[in-house]
Each structure stands twice: as structure tokens, then as C-alpha cells.
Amino acid sequence: xxxxxxxxxxCCFLDNHSYQLPSHSLECLLAAGAIQSIQASAGNAFxxxxxxxxxxxxxxxxxFGYGLTKETEPSGAxxxxxPDAGAxxxxxxxxxxxxxxxxxxAPLSQADLIGFPDLFxxxxxxxxxxxxxxxxxxxxxxxxxxxxxxxxKIKTDVVIDSGDQPSQxxxxxxxxxxxxxPAPPLLQPxxxxxxxxxxxxxxxxHILRGDCYEINFCQEFFAxxxxxxxxxxxxxxxxxxxxxxxxxxxLENSYLLCASPERYLQRIGNTLLSQPIKGTSPRRQGSQAQxxxxxxxxxxxxxxxxxxxxxxDLVRNDLSKICLPGSVRVEELYGIYSFPQVYQMISTIKxxxxxxxxxxxxxxxxxxxxxxxxxxxxRVVGLIEQYERAPRGIFSGAVxxxxxxxxxxxxxxxxxxxxxxQNNYLSYLVGSGITYYSDxxxxxxxxxxxxxxxxxxxxx
Length: 460
What we know:
By secondary structure, the protein is of the alpha+beta class. It contains 13 helices and 21 strands. The protein is 28% helix and 30% strand. A hairpin with a 5-residue loop joins strand 6 and strand 7.
């Protein structure tokens, strides 16, 4: 399905890799081609989307980029301040190291070289839904049988690459003119290790003086030029790190290769559900006893529980903005779930929408997701802009679908490769939640764990 669909200029492939998690929805969902579309920048993007979808009863696929925080949290940037701005700390503690001077002179990449707009949604020409034992095809041209035949003719050992030329794949991957596989892209960090550690210390100073409780801090790794083949790379990423909210999303020359384990927001009827992740521990595949011990340590970690309950409170607050009074509830707290490289601590929060609530309003009230910002949300949005060195773009935004009945499901864009085929710019961002009790060294190590699946995909 994906090999066939990747020839379209616009396509979105959502794959849960057969995970049967709570609130399981669809196995695979594919949208290809665009009958109609909307692209908007932060300012009045949600109103434009609402106007675009009013009265519409069709499938919608697309994304919300992190840049929409300028619309939903408009004063966040104005609240920036330095941790040594003269305010007395609210708590007395040993003095923390001052931020490395390099932090102030760090080059911030202002341009989003990947190229996804703040918001994009499209009504697909073709929708294919795959579940156990069945395939359902919807097509504007009423050519369902022809589509199935085209897909069936693509052999399992041959794919069509994103340049529309047949190639051996997905196990072989692209090769140079002499038949050799190219070396993996050389990724460079925006922060040196020491700069990252100093930044975490500076963020702890903000927490100490009461600016915020928790902040999700992200760093970028990038390669330029990096002439990868997006489709082969996505297959490799899926093998290395299969996760329940994976996506291959193509918008002209911009690609998202996503191996996300996290759901942002789902609507079924009038029920809203969010499942934030906070708390990560690496898997120890060589020893069953050590692996179980790591899982137990995560469940009992006071630091990870602190992070998790903070984001749960933030999500409860967000859902309360749009849900019926008294309907917001925590269905699971501190759930531990297994993934290929890591264990994750996941909580589940639900609420009931007033009848007739437009689906766009549910997203507007809760975006950006608390797991990728921190608390209080408006304050940390400003600190993120102050301390991070690359625009997030679609990263820590959301990709997903809206069904004709108004139900929807959106992921959190993490554990992802971002690529622009036109300028050969490759990027991935990783982050962790910083609290006052964070150990900067351990936060740095956590970023490396989270990137392990992406590194394996690029090496292959």
C-alpha cells in the first residue's frame, strides 16, 4: 500500500504495527492524492480549518505543527526572562552553576528547512483501510478494483522509491553508481554535550525561582546534504522501532518518517481521550532479569512519577476547558508499556464533550500537548523559544485523521526523521522533561536512548 501511495505528491500512511493498546483504533489507514486542501499559518489557522470543514462529511488527513503555539499560547514568548534576572529564588538551595557563555552565543537556526506549514489538511482522493482479514477502499473515481490490482502487482521484494523509479527494496535500499550502499548520513548536534548540560542547569534555575514546574527541552541532530530515500528509510525505521502511532507523511518535498509511541488526542462520539507519556527507561534485551528490574525501577521512580503526574494535571486542565464540568477523569496513572528500545510510563485521561462540539475546538483547547511543553504551558512555551536552537516545525505537533462521522485520532510527532528532498536536509529532534530534580547527565543519556531506533534506521 505504502509503496504504491508514495508516488502521489501528497499521502499519509498511519500504521499501528499490530499493537493492541487501550483504545485501539485501526491497523493501517492510507490517504493518497488531494481533492481539496487547506494550508494555514499561525494567527487564525484554527478558524480557517473550522470554516474549511464546516458542513463537510468526508475523510480528512493532515497535521498541526508546533508553530500553532503562537496562536494558542500567544503571550508565551513575551514571558521570557533570564534565570539571573535579579528575582530571589522561592526556595533556598545550593547555588547552581551559571549557564555556559556559549549558550548565549549559540547559533539559532531560525528557518524551518523541512518546510511543513503550521497547518495542513486534505480531503483524499483515495482512502484505504486495512484491518485483520479485510481491506476497504474508497475512491473518488470509483476505480476500487483497479487500485487493488495495482497494489497487488507490487511484489513484496520490490518497492517504488520516492523518486518514482523502480528499485530493489526495502531490504536493499538505495545504492551508488558502483553498486555500494552509501554511508549513513553524518548527523551533527546543535548542542555539544557540555552545552546541553549547561542548558539543563539553566532550566533548573528557572524552576528554582518558580518560573515553571517542568519543561520539555529538545535538541536537534541534523545532516546536510543527506541524499536519503525516504521510503526505504521509513521501512528501516519501522523494522528498528515499530510503534503504535507510526506515520509516513509526504507533502510535496517534505517528509515525516514517524515512529511515535504516543497518542495526543482521540475522539469517539463525545468522549475525548489523551494518553501523555512521561517517564522513559531503556530496555535491557540481553538479560530478562535486568530488563524487568529496569521496568520496575521506572514504575517506582519518584522523578518519573513527578513528571508524569504534572503532565496529567496539565491535560486534565486542558480537557476541562472544552469538556462538561465534572466529566474529566484519570483512567490510568503510571501505566508501564513495553516498546522495542524503551519502557514508557503512560497515563490515560478522558472527558466528555458537550453535544455538538466541533472537533476543531477540541484540538484548539488542548494544543500543544503538555507532554511536549511542560507546566505551566504558556510560560514554558516562552522558555522553549528562548533556549532551543532549532524550530520544531512539525516535530511535537500532531499527525492523524478525521473520519466522516467526526471521530478523530492524532499522534504526538516524536521519534521521527524529518526530511526535505529538495534541499537534502535531514533532521531529528529528541527531548526530555526537565524538573528541578533532573540529573543533566541522565537527561542527556535519555535523549540518546530515544534516538536509538532512528540511528539504527539510518545505519541500515
